[in-house]
Structure formats: C-alpha cells, structure tokens
Amino acid sequence: MSALKSSNLGYPRIGANREWKKALEAFWAGKLSEEAFTKELETIRLQHLKKQQDKGIDLIPVNDFSWYDHMLDTAVMFGLVPERFGYEGGVVPLKTYYAMARGNQGATACEMTKWFNTNYHYIVPELDGAEPVLTENRPLTAYREAKEKLGIEGKPVLVGLFTFLKLSKGYDTDALDEVIQYFLPLYTQILKELEQEGVKWVQIDEPILVTSLTQEDVARVEAIYSALREAAPGIQIMLQTYFESVEHYAQIVALPVHGIGIDFVHGGEQNLNAIQTLGFPKDKVLGAGIVDGRNIWRTDIEASLELLTKLAEVVPYERIIVQPSSSLLHVPVTTEPEVALNPVLKNALAYADEKLDEIALIVRAVNEGKEAVAAEIKSATSAIEVLNSSKERSRTDVQQAAAQAHEQPASRTSSFDVRKGAQQARWNLPFLPTTTIGSFPQTVEVRQARQKWRKGEWDSEQYDAFVRDEIKTWMDLQEDIGIDVLVHGEFERTDMVEFFGEKLDGFAFTKNGWVQSYGSRCVKPPVIYGDVAFVEAMTVKESVYAQSLTSKPVKGMLTGPITILNWSFVRNDLSREQVAYQIALALREEVEALEQAGIEMIQVDEPAIREGLPLKEDQKQPYLDWSVFAFRLSTSTVKDTTQIHTHMCYCEFHDMIDSIRDLDADVISIETSRSHGELIFSFEESTYNKGIGLGVYDIHSPRVPEVEEMVSMIERALRVLDPELFWINPDCGLKTRGKEETVASLRRMVEAAQQVRKAS
Ligand code: GLN
Ligand code: ZN
Questions:
Q1: Binding site membership of 488 for ligand 1 (Cβ less than 6 Å)
Q2: pTM exceeds cut of 0.90
Q3: Which of 321, 464, 481, 619 has the smallest set of CB atoms within 10 Å of its CB?
C-alpha cells in the first residue's frame, strides 16, 4: 500500500517567535555581524526543515526560505539589480540585496506590491534592459544544505519563469517573447544542475495560471515548459498553481511536466469540476491542495477524505500527493502558545505546523485505513462542531439581520445634491475646506502610555487622562493652524482594526498569530470567529471630548466593514459577504451613536477595499457590489445634514471609480502621492460628482512640502474637478510622522489653500 504521499509547498519564514524578523532587524541595525546573521538564518532554516521532516512530510520544500522576499531572491539570482544600486556583477552582496528592498541614502527602494490576492507583498523586479545572468544556483544550494545537514531529499522551489516575468516591470510587454528567450537559458541551467545533482522533484510555482491569460500566453507557457523538459528530462517538475482555479485547464494539464499542483480550497469547486469533466492525464501526478494554506482553521478531515475519494475516481491514489492549497507562508507558525484563548476557539485552530499534521493524518487515513486514525479524525471533527455550535456562533438575531441585510436601509434619504445643499447650510464651510485623515503622530510617549495601561501600571483613568491631554494639545494645534474640519487624532488606537475588534463581540486576538506582510514586517490579524455584534459605543467619548473644545466641526473616525474584514482572519462557516454585513450592522450602531452625541461628520475608512478583490474577472464586480452595500448599510441611516466621509489609500483606484461613487459618501479623501495627475484624470473622466479630497502631499516621507507644490497640485485638480466639491487634505493619516514636521506641513497646507482661495 502506502500509495498516497504528502508534500508541503512552503513554510513560514518568520519563526515561531519571530526570530527571523528579529535577526533581520538586528542585522540592519548593525547589531549582528554578517557572519552571525548568516549563521542565525541557517539555524532557523534548518529548524524549519527538521520540523517538517519530523512530521513525516514526504516532499519537503527547499529554497522557499528567503532573506526578505522570494521574488527579490529570484531577481538577484538573475543579477537583476537596478543601476542605481551600483552593482558590479557576481553574487549580489547582502548589502545590495537589502538596499533594493529598503532603499539607501543614494537610491530609492524597488517598488513593492501585493502577491496576488494575499496580504503578502513582494518586491517588483526591474528588468530595464539588464541582461540576466545566473549569479548563483540558489535552489541547488538549498537542496545540498538540506541533504548534507539533515539527510533530507528536498524539493527545490522556484518562481516559474512566466509568473516571474508577468510580475516584473521595466520591459515592453510587446517584447515578452524576446524577454523569455533571455531567461530561458538560465532556468534551463538551474534545472540541468539540479538534475545532475540527482534532484527528483522540483516545484515550479506558476500562480499566474489562475488569472486570465490569452491564448498567446498559454502558447508561451507551453513553449517554456517544452524547452525545460527537453533540457532536463530526468527531473520531475511539479508545476504548481494556487489561489484559484486553473484557467485553460485542458491545456495546462497537458503541459510536458510530471505533475500539476492544483488548489482544491480556493476555486476548489471549479477545479474539481474540471478534473471530473475533462479528466487528468494518465502520465501525471496530481498535487492536491486540500488543506487551506490561507486560513487558520482546522481542516474538516472527513470532508477532505471525501474530496480525495472523488479525485481518486479520476487519478489513482499512487499518483496523488496531498499538500496545502498554497505555501504556508500566509499562516502563522503554531497554535501551541495560544493558551490564553477560549479553548473552544483554540481547539479549532490550525496554523502551519498543525496543518502539516493534518496532511500527515489525511495520508495515513488513506494509506492505513480510516480506522487506524479514527480517534484523531473524531477529535478534529468534534473541535469544529463544538465551535460551530458555540454560543459565539449562535447569535440568531445577528445572523438573521445579516441574512436579511438587503431589507435594511442602505440608501440615504435624499440624493447627494439635496444633501449637499443641506450640509452647506448646516456647516457653512469655506471654499476648499481643509481637513486631515484622522491620526496624528503616535509618539513614543503615546505608545508608552498604552503599554503602561495594558500592563496595569496605569489604571483606565490615568490612561484616559493622558489621551485627553493629547487630544487637547492637537485640538489647540489644529485651531492654531487654521484647519476647518478637525479630528481628535486617534491616540487611543494602536491599529485601526484591532481597536474596533477589541470592542465588538465576535473577535479574538491571538498571542502568536503573526504572518509576514512584507520583509521583516509582520501583522497579527484579529480572528473573527463568532457573530459580530455591537456592545457599546466605541469612539463617542473621545470625539465628544474633542468637539467640546472647539466650535469647528469635529469629524468622527471609524474603520469600515470591508477593511475590518480584509485585515482579519475570517471564520469559514459563513460567507465573507455575510460576515461583512454583520460588521456593517454593528458599525451602523456606532455611526448612529456618534450622530446622537452631536458628531455629525463621520469618516468611515475603507483603505483595504481593493485588497479583497478576487483574482477572477467575473468575481470582481459581485465582490465590489456587496462591499459597497456593506459600507452603505453602515452609513445610510443618518440625517441629510450629517456628512459621511470615507478615505482610501494603498491602491489603484482608476478601475473602481464607479464603485467608489456608489459608496455615496458625501466626501472621499484619497491617497494620491504616487500618481496625482492620472488620478485626477480618471475622476474627471468618470464625472465623479461628490466631495473629493485628493491628497495634496505625501505623508510617507518626513519631508515638509513647499507651499507652491501644493498650490500647483490644487490648481491642477481644480482645472478638471468641480471646485465646489474639492477638499484639501494630506494623503493619509499622520500617525507615523513626527510632531514638528506634521505641524509644519499642515501650516503650509492651510497656507496653500488660502492662496488658492484668494486667487479664485
Ligand atoms: N483614519 C486613519 C488614520 O488616519 C486612516 C488610516 C489609513 O488610511 N490607513 O490613521
Ligand atoms: Zn490612508
């Protein structure tokens, strides 16, 4: 027997205690020599391999480890270092590598962007005419290390050529065929060397194959893999896809490779359907991604076994490898330290290590028979059942309200034009009103105060008093600067999602649920595990206090439902849409509480709306539609005179302006530092007809902008946008900036507004 095999596609780099992150940062800070750093990373890497070995995983990935990011690793392996970093050939030194990632005195960092629909960000390779060379065979080095040090027959992982090029910039896409020809020999060489070394399996990641590709693209992929097969016929390529269903299924599974890895969790239904209706080649191995690599929940083992049975009707077990749906990079390391969590929740969690155990369990259940592992299967099933029937997931009032969301009010009483008049009369704001996005500098003192309070060194009264002092200071400053619409400054918030999650029902906060976001930066998303419900007012106290200090309007400040959803780990027993509606309805209560307390300008931030955008074209609009609907659920029950603001950043907007308009916010502020001109143009084209503030200065740098720059930005915007609807504000929140530079920048911003007002 022993037919079915197990595999992993990638292991988290950060370490159970974020040792990897700490090592990187210590090295950057000069606290760790290059030698000590290299040694430390080796220790971490080997520990991770050993763990997978101990868990009995048959195919253990190597070269999935990184010094920062796997796309950057691939770029430097090919010597793709932009000129500004002064690289002179050969193996790229660590110093240069990190300069590309983080920038240095003389050169700005390479661009960073989201890896498909995840919250992981990769460094975008810049080709710019450089002739790629193979500076080192990293997969080979990794393979040798695992073999020599641990006796592991590793499976080297490589970013596939087509995905690599599609995600790179700095070349004419019309010349793609030529570019492929430059890189093909390098991939060939890597594979030949691996073949010579006796490597059995290599995993080549081509997640781009789940996005829409033209027939020409498919032909390119065919040409690439034919060439690779011919060059290294002795090596078995597992062509790995993930995050969605495979496009052009019939052609992709026919590629000249030994195995095809398919995600049966995300896009699983379509993938299963494709296999069942179109079959699977008799000569290939199926990498069956059946344990979710993107979420933190335990796997329903019975359901996985059922799925496997279906797959086995098409592909016999001896040609199936059980694996996670994607690399485990996107989940935390181990649930072991989560002892403080509600045991019902903890029991239902599976991070990377537990997911590998699940894979091993599934394999045993097939190879040894279900009876051999009956107890383990039972405990997995019951953990999920216990959570599902817990009181936290049984709030029928909440569930029903969300299920009937479409019967709830989701439109303002009056049209924007009517509201505009009413609001103008109510607020009497000057032409080109000035405001900010919400947060003011979170200084060391602010963070220390919160620490003291969390540790119990300060009681709530002391902490509240501190926050009030900060609010007072900044209210006075805003008055003095002459800003028109004031904010309280968000000093009481660490993070725009956590703050609300801690106050709403249905959320949990883990101790160790860290995942890599970019480079050494990790995030610990809240866990939405129960029905989400409003408990008591969350922001009213601070806003009302701020309003008591001024006769100018104070804007209340909330995080929107979709941003809360997209920055959390979300329960998987309900659709994301339903969870979004639950959050939206809870936030509606906060909006109403603010209005009742006299806060009649309310900003509901949605910076992360785009992050949830599905990869598949036909799923994008439905997602945007229910996201917009959720926002409207939160914001539609207020009076005409109450002004709803929203804010967006970190993304491209030009292709979603219709959805932005549908939010029906009275005012939107948008980050524009990257492409002010283009953005204005897209808003003009769409004849956007509601209040809009396109950030007039970039808050990502400590630089204090010149008045003239901002004046010309404003003038440019006013040439195309309705001046009556234009607002003046920075790009984004100011929490990462210093106090002095912030005050100086805002003074100049107000001055710029005044100059333009005078001139018109
Ligand atoms: N109101 C938030 C702030 O100013 C918005 C943050 C964001 O857009 N990411 O910090
Ligand atoms: Zn922002």
A1: no
A2: yes
A3: 619
